[in-house]
Amino acid sequence: MPWKNQGGGPWGSGPKGPWGNGPQPVGPRPPDLEDLLRRGQDRLQQIMPGGYFSGIGITLIVLLIVAFWLLSGFFRVQSEELGVVLRFGKHVRTVEPGLNYHLPYPIETVLLPKALRVSTISIGMTLIDDPARRGRSIRDVPEESLMLTGDENIVDVDFTVLWRIKPNGVGDFLFNIQNPEGTVKAVAESSMREVIGRSQIQPILTGARNVTEQGVQELIQKTLDTYGAGIQISQVQMQKVDPPAQVIDAFRDVQAARANLEQLQNEAQTYANQVVPQARGRSAQIMQAAEGYREQTVAEAKGQSSRFLKVYDEYKKAPDVTRERIYLETMERVLGGSEKLIYDGGQSGQGVVPYLPLSELTAKRPPATGQQTTGGNR
Known about the structure:
By secondary structure, the protein is an alpha+beta fold. It contains 10 helices and 15 strands.
């Protein structure tokens, strides 16, 4: 019996200790544990006649132990978990979230991995507590982020990997790999270095991020499947892709120069797209005009040749008449508009004979063909 329940102790009566009176409790005193145990034992003895070690008592104790052992097989699987039931260490089934039951230990045990949760691993950066900002800040990890490209340039790459356990690969995840997060991180870093090592730096810095992310994701998944890890890579996200801090200004100048080059090329292409169609239109117009002139000239030449051939055919029918007609028509065209003088060359001739000037009349009223004569105006 403890000293505090006895009438006195080595230090006198009452609840004292070797250093005097202890602190006195305020309010109702809590129940004594030894008193509760003693009362429980008394009630149990009343229920089991004959004491604890009688046949009925032992049977009741065994039944209670078996009941507690059987009830220990109930377990709950949370919403992000899957229950992996092992029978003597061998995977026998997988159960969904909710209340489930397995044979009690040591027959069956259960493991509860976060199989339905998407986990994130950051490579090239880490989160640290920042008391000044009352939060967490990102710190670069150069030994993870600095990588060598295919054209022997150094690039600083920070990226994250989103992964989860395959629905049908929970057993592989639990038994084939020992450190899942470390394995995923190591494989992801190795895959990113391999893809970056096959690429040029300029596409990585500009427009080839999607291609790089897709290539890294496929390579990580292929490697993990080779390991039989039971892990599915959901996505690879490149957070930052920059040259090293020591040369970032020079790279920015190069990018600005490339941007100016592309701008000038676009302007030149725009000017060419405007000028070339105009030149083609003018050349087509000139070609069409030349084609029209050619067709017109050929048609006129054919018409003249046809006319000449017809005249020649008529000439062959009556050469004398045709020659005389041609002669008269020619003389009419030659002498029709010239001034005419009449000369009398006889013995009684008077030289130049005056005649009535009819040039004004003929100018206003040209004579009909074949009516002019050389001596009709004396």
